[in-house]
Amino acid sequence: MAGLAPARHDEETGGRLLGIGAAAQRLGVSERALRYYQQIGLIVPASTTPGGLRRYSESDVARVERIVELKTLLGLNLDEIALVLRNEDRIAQIRLTYHDERTSEDERRQLTRECLALQEDLRATVEVKRAALDAFLADLNARISRARALLADHDH
Hints:
By secondary structure, the chain is an alpha+beta fold. It has two domains: 1-72, Orthogonal Bundle (Multidrug-efflux Transporter Regulator, Chain: A, Domain 2); 74-156, no CATH class. Helix content is 67%, strand content 8%.
């Protein structure tokens, strides 16, 4: 099976590259999910063989782990995950530029403003999810209270 090609070392990435089957198995996701994440721009495999087989680096694996975390832990949808990843990627770029010795103090101030705006944007995304979860929990608590009241009435 083409997707189960063994991992190989790639000089460009400096590490082992996994075929799609090995990456999917390691990550606990389907090959179809990895293809879809690439199709919608969430990930870009480190390389592709001349025959068109995808190869995933450790940083690709870490990115998919982040996608899974955002999806399961926070319940973000793929559009929200794309926003988070874009913001996190830009924050990483800002960090590199900020620490570059050629960056002026004015540029650092502007980069800090941009970073703050991105972090506030991410926080707003998470706050929306938290508000939805809080409303869901409040509804569940009300239902539990009604069920307990019904049980109490039946016990008397």
